[in-house]
Every structure is written in C-alpha cells, then in structure tokens.
Task: structure prediction
Amino acid sequence: MTASIPDIVISRLPIYLRALERLAQDGHEVTSSLELGKHLGISSAQIRKDLSHFGGFGKQGTGYKIKYLTEQLRQVLKVEQEWEIALVGAGDLGSAVARYRGFAHRGFRVAYVFDSAASKAGKRLGNLEIYPMEKLHEIISERQIKVAMIAVPAESAQQVADALIAAGVRAILNYAPINLNVPAHVRVQYIDPVIHLQRMTYYISE
Result:
C-alpha cells in the first residue's frame, strides 16, 4: 500500500497531525474536514480523499474524534515511537538544530552529534557529546539508527551521506545546499531557506 500512495499525500499527513494536536491543546475533542480545511487552507474534499487512503477515520455528519485520528496518523507516520537521530555537523546550524525543542514529544530525538573538527570531539553541545566522524559507523550501526540530519558545508555533504548510508541510515534530512545521490531505498528531504526565498520573491510585484 505504501508504494501506491502518492508522496504528495504523505507530505500532507504531518500537516494534518500538527493541526489536530493544536486543536486538542485548545480543548477540542471532535473536528471535521471542513474545520481542518479552514485552519490549513486545504479543501475539505482533499482532506477526506487523503485520509481515505488509510481507511475510514470518521463518519459523515459526525466528523473525526481528534484523539483517535491523531493516534491513527501517528501510527501511519510511524511516530508513535521515538526515533533516535544522528546529527552530522556541530557548527552554527547544527548547534541550533541540536537545541531545537520542537522534536520533543513529536516522535524524534537528536541522540548523537558528529563533527569532523578534531577540536570539537569530546566537547558538549547542550547535553550531547560531540563524537568524531571516525565513530560514526560504529555508533550508528550498533544503535541501529535509521534517521540522520546533515548540517555540513555543501562540499562535504555527499561524503557524509555515503558514510551514513553505509552505516545503515535510511532517511536523511539534508540542510546542505546540494542534491545528494543516494540509493533508491534511502529517502532524502531538503531544507534550503534560500530556495524557498527565491521561490517567494518570484511572486512579489514591483
């Protein structure tokens, strides 16, 4: 079933999950595709169609029970468990990512930080020890870590990705401004603020 569901549908599920969690925090117990659509700027028909890929989560006229739908989406996205993350790069960006509190309670935890600078090895980034790159394969393979983030310069990103994949990583969030060459079984997502800024400025009228 996973292969038959369009990736664009999967990309919207975390957005639905975030909206449901916000509604729950505000004391709501039931919602509807219409209400979710108003919060997200997505049509109610699209939301119903997306959710229908995974079974029936609500009844027409009664809406969705927020707690139940949240639990189901967390299972679909496999974030009912906590994923340990390996972060490569302890510079300014990596330090900010490691200290970001938004991962907590949402299925992820930065567990290990690696950096190629010998001067950083053994130092701490918050409550995390910074490990040398020489330790990357050993730690990731022993801990069976499947998710990693790359926060290194573009010229180093492919080499880092290759090392992560060789150690068993299956999903990479890449902050480096470069596209990575990876095997088909590895998923990569890119975060490059400049790309998004350039996309937005196209629409600014003079």
